[in-house]
Specification:
heterodimer; A: alpha+beta; Ubiquitin-like (UB roll); DNA polymerase, domain 1; 2 domains; five-stranded mixed β-sheet; 8 helices; 5 strands; globular; B: 332 residues; alpha+beta; Uridine Diphospho-n-acetylenolpyruvylglucosamine Reductase, domain 2; Enolase-like, domain 1; 12 helices
């Protein structure tokens, strides 16, 4: 019964309780796939003219996150980052600066690395989003996750999901040819613990191994 | 952040009408600057018109002109074979801007229309003529090491604006004689890229010459003979992912040892990408030499002013021009 309510995200949005119960529902919903798919309308109007600024009408968005299609009702101001963390309980993606300066929120949108904090969720209609939670397969870590452990590519770990998502893109974009090139193409991901040399080594190793990333 | 109405048109005219009919409406493309500004309360649109579904992403080369749609992403343009072959200076400038993630999100039109990164524009506790016309300029007497040395009268500075236009891409497009294609409700018009941005004067709140119901639909760059004799030099506080303190786009066409054509533009020095027309003219017909480049750079600096913390730019800027020209001429 509850699963059905989650699928129809607008009801979920109306829940007064934003706590544990909601998270439980969300986790259930993650396990579900094949939800109805809405085409992008010619013009989507949202948050009708007379809605007050503090309490806008929810808007509907359908997007696929880590292979699961979600149809959700959201506040129009919701960023992709907040949608992932607060509504889908995918807290692997981190909120660092929230202004596009640190890279902690890096996710892949339609295969391209993107800053989730500078993306409105409503603008991700029909997009395919992948987060750090999608990398491990069948209980095995992704090669770059393993390399980060081997090379001590983190200390506090807060920037790590963004570093790894960006690092995977760096290899896919064929911009991991040398330490210098990696430094340049990873410059959007800051690490205040200063694990940079180890991060570069981890990316180099995976690139040189020829592993499928 | 104030809530907003969200529209997703698929036709250019629908998008223009949606913004033209509502003074509180704004176009949004990549959003990397606008969302930042909305989060900080600097810009509070009532309506966002999402233009990402308009057919303006194409990059093509036809009859001597490179044509780039306004919604082509910075990363796509920087890696496009026609751009690398025909206008490598543009690819260099795009690569030097922002980060891998931001270049995947930022569009060409949005890059050109990004707002200044002056800290006083962003901090609502301070006066700023650009953010709040008539309130004054905190940068003139404040932290101004990143600020303008061209295009502003020193005596009038507190009534105007000494912030700089932050884009690297714009500097290359200014140097390459690019054209901007602009669609309005009445039809299309074309202007030189150097006429897109304006000097602050007594209306520093206006960054560009665009009307509010106009939309940039693309850019065109005519062929040139600069080939690989083009260089984008960017001086910044860290090696990557930082705005320019000073940047130079330099392009030379050298035939039989003499300069047949030259283009010079600077970033980080003015309210708009700054072409050094007089310096370009000085180079024409003369043989390539470092001494010549020094003369040209000195000519380019004739109208420069500074505001204390950015005094160093008066030396850095001409040195950067010389370095960029030496790179472009491959006699470094």
């Amino acid at each position: 019964m509850n699963n059905e309510r989650i699928v129809r995200g607008e009801e979920l949005e109306n829940e007064a309780d934003f706590s544990e119960e909601r998270r439980f529902f969300l986790k259930q919903s993650v396990a579900m796939a094949g939800l109805s798919f809405l085409p992008v309308p010619f013009v989507t109007a949202a948050g009708g003219g007379d809605s007050s600024p503090g309490n806008p009408e929810p808007v509907k968005v359908t997007l696929t996150v880590n292979g699961t299609r979600h149809r959700l009702a959201i506040d129009v101001r919701t960023t992709l980052l907040d949608l992932l963390r607060e509504q889908l309980a995918l807290t692997g993606t981190k909120k660092g600066c929230d202004f596009g300066q640190c890279g902690a929120c890096t996710v892949h949108v339609d295969g391209q690395r993107t800053l989730a904090c500078l993306s409105f969720a409503i603008m991700q209609q029909s997009k395919k989003v992948h987060t750090i939670e999608s990398l491990a397969k069948n209980g095995s870590l992704h090669p770059l996750q393993q390399a980060f452990i081997k090379h001590d590519g983190f200390q506090c770990g807060y920037c790590t999901p963004g570093q790894i998502m960006s690092g995977v893109s760096c290899i896919r974009e064929k911009k991991a040819g040398s330490a210098e090139e990696i430094q340049e193409y990873m410059s959007g991901n800051l690490c205040r613990c200063g694990a940079y040399p180890n991060i570069v080594n981890a990316i180099m190793e995976v690139k040189n191994s020829g592993s499928q990333v | 952040m104030k809530a907003f109405q969200y529209l997703r048109p698929s036709k250019v005219q629908d998008a223009i009408r949606a913004v033209g009919s509502d003074p509180g409406a704004r176009f949004i493309a990549g959003g990397t600057n606008l969302i930042d500004l909305m989060k900080r309360g600097i810009v509070s649109p009532d309506k966002l018109v999402d233009i990402n579904h308009l057919p303006l992403k194409k990059i093509s080369y036809q009859s001597g002109r490179l044509k780039i749609g306004a919604l082509a992403l910075n990363s796509e343009v920087a890696a496009h074979p026609a751009v690398l072959q025909k206008q490598p200076l543009l690819a260099q400038a795009l690569h030097s801007g922002a980060s891998g993630q931001l270049r995947n999100m930022a569009t060409m039109g949005g890059n050109a229309l990004q707002r200044t990164r002056c800290p006083y524009f962003y901090d609502t506790a301070f006066p700023c003529n650009k953010r709040k016309p008539g309130s004054g300029c905190a940068a003139v007497e404040g932290i101004n090491r990143m600020h303008s040395i061209f295009g502003v009268e020193k005596a009038n500075a507190t009534q105007s604006c000494i912030a700089v236009h932050p884009s690297d891409m714009s500097v290359a497009l200014a140097a390459l004689d690019a054209e901007v294609i602009i669609q309005g409700q009445g039809g299309e018009r074309r202007i030189a890229f150097t006429d897109l941005h304006r000097l602050p004067g007594n209306q520093p709140e206006l960054d560009t010459t665009l009307e509010r119901n106009e939309l940039i639909t693309g850019f065109e760059i005519p062929d040139n003979d600069f080939g690989m004799h083009a260089h984008y030099l960017k001086v910044r506080d860290r090696a990557s992912f930082a705005f320019a303190i000073v940047s130079v786009a330099a392009a030379l066409d050298v035939k039989e040892g003499k300069i047949n054509a030259a283009r010079l533009a600077m970033g980080g020095v003015a309210h708009k990408p700054w072409r050094l027309f007089e310096a370009e003219r000085h180079l024409l017909g003369k043989p390539v030499s470092e001494a010549l480049f020094r003369q040209a750079a000195a000519l380019g600096m004739r109208d420069a002013v500074s505001f204390g913390q950015n005094d160093y730019k008066l030396r850095m800027a001409p040195n950067a021009v010389v370095q960029a020209l030496l790179h472009a001429a491959a006699i470094e």
